[in-house]
Amino acid sequence: MHVHRGARRSGAPRVTLLTEGTYPHSHGGVSVWCDQLVTGMPDVDFDVLAVTGSGREPLAWDLPPHVSHVLSVPMWGPAPDGRPPRGRAARRLADAYEKFTAALLDPGAEAGFGPALYALAHAAGDGRLSPFLRSDAAISVLTSVWRRPGLAVREARPTLHDAITATALLEHALRPLSAPPPAEGVAHAVSGGVAVLPGLAALERNGVPLLLTEHGVYLRERYLGYRTAPYRWPVKAVVLGFFRLLAEESYRKAALITPGNRYNRLWEEEGGADPESIRTVYNGVDPAAFPPAGPEPDAPTLSWAGRVDPIKDLETLIRSLALVRERMPAVRLRLFGGTPRGGEAYRERCEALAAELGHADAVTFEGRVDDIKDAYAAGNVVMLSSISEGFPFTLIEAMSCGRATVSTDVGGVREAVGDTGLVVPPRDPAAMAEAALTLLGDPVRRRAMGEAARLRVIERFTLRQTVDTFRAIYHELAAGERRPEPARIVLPVPAVSGTGSLAG
Asked: Which one, 20, 59, 244, 392, has the greatest CB density within 10 A?
């Protein structure tokens, strides 16, 4: 889907937002953040290059006039148009692809990843990459690399089915390279991973500076996700090798990296980012839009807000409720938020768990709420049970509403909360239950924590601070103030398990 919305303005900085699965086609924390930046900067011209699922997703946000173009790049819809290369061009592309796949599997060949990636990007721009990757030639390249002596993945005895699967996954992951890369201004990738691909192509082809903002650690989330993915180890080795080397390339090439917390910064430095190119910028909210929530509910209630997704680990939250109700039987859990398409099975699993534990009557899935403030007001305590987060909006919104919180110690949660809420280890129902019982049983402490939480947001995490910081960054990068490329640092290769599981 290509939406043309208006003419460019002379003299206004131009920023192309590079997104994946978020703005402007879906809701969620990162989409809220994008909307805040766009609506907060009417003096900046924006384009959006959005990596989507099918390409048929409707716009979920009302876009202001200074968003000029929206281009949707589907990863799972129809393949990009084009023809497979022939003759010398086919041999050059096969050679580049061989270097590319070798880099994913052989630590000694990793230096070839960047040059091979940009060769693939040029082929994608000419409409040749996707047809090539859907051909037998690409499968033959991968199988020949897999057979090289000394490769750890060879010991897992890759099959033809593995080669077909891995090649198909790479073809889909590389589809963003088929989009026309930004030709001017600043390319701002609002996550790592495949959203960065057009930005890297824009830097290599047009000299457009790349700004990278990671809310969660994309690479870490891929590691977590592929632990339970239904693929054998050879396939996981290819795909995770791609995401690892893409992260390193992104960190090296970005003119500036703006993590939302210090935890992300550690991953980025480990991945090869020059510390001088990293600037932490916290998410912010408008305290006036999230005023004190008012009276607490009469019945003791835990509330949660977000999207129903495995990374939010609602199963731990439900198990913790069961432990809470052993000592406070009247406690309820209200879950606010939509279920993404494809996530219905996870919601059903959570509902089944509540029923299995005997608490189906106390757990309610409320769906999307018109005013998110109602979700925070619905609880005496607001919960966050995620196994991975950046700097979560739901947490600082709840804090701005003056609610005490219990959160898992992931990402920037501890930086956000400080001493105004309780922080517990992830995937620990007993610790989460104990923290919830502590606050439910002490209304004076709960009220004091809520008041301190709102004051902390006002002092440190306002939307105006966030928008002003990024406006200054856009002007800085558009003016050509770019940093030198840092030295290459290689992340350790994930351990190989003969059973097909991902260690770590």
From this structure: 392
The Cα-based distances of 333 to 79, 190, 263, 302 in angstroms read: 44, 32, 30, 5
As a whole number, mean pLDDT of residues 221-248 equals: 91
Determine contact, residues 229/236, Cβ cutoff 8 Å. Answer: yes
How far, in whole angstroms, is CA 420 from its chain's centroid? Answer: 26
Residue 89 has pLDDT above 70, yes or no: yes
For residue 73, which phi and psi values (nearest 5 degrees)?
Answer: -115, 100
Q: Residue 155: how many CB atoms within 10 A of its CB?
A: 11
CA triple 318-323-324, angle to 5 deg:
90
Q: How many CB atoms lie within 10 A of CB 292?
A: 14
pLDDT of residue 10: 63
**What's the token pair of residue 311?**
């990374």
pLDDT (0 to 100) of residue 181? 96
Question: Hey, which bits of 240-399 come out as E strands?
Answer: 256-257, 301-305, 332-336, 363-367, 381-384
Is the pLDDT score of 4 beyond 70?
no
Alpha helices in 134-232 (DSSP H): 136-146, 160-173, 197-206, 218-226
How do residues 129-177 score in pLDDT, each as one tens digit?
A: 999 999 999 999 999 999 999 898 888 899 999 999 999 999 999 999 9
Backbone torsions φ then ψ of 16, nearest 5 degrees? -105, 115
Q: What are phi and psi of 301, to 5 degrees?
A: -140, 135
Whether 455 and 223 have beta carbons less than 8 Å apart is answered as no
Residue type, 318: I
Spell out the alpha helix ranges (H) of 271-423.
314-327, 344-356, 372-377, 393-400, 413-417
E-strand spans in 102-199? 186-189
**CB distance 258 to 215 below 8 Å:** no
Q: Which domains occur in the chain, in start order?
A: 2-80+176-277 (3.40.50.2000), 87-172 (no CATH), 301-460 (3.40.50.2000)
Contact yes or no for 411/265 (Cβ under 8 A): no
Token couple for 439: 């606050």
Integer Cα distance of 188 and 249 in angstroms = 15
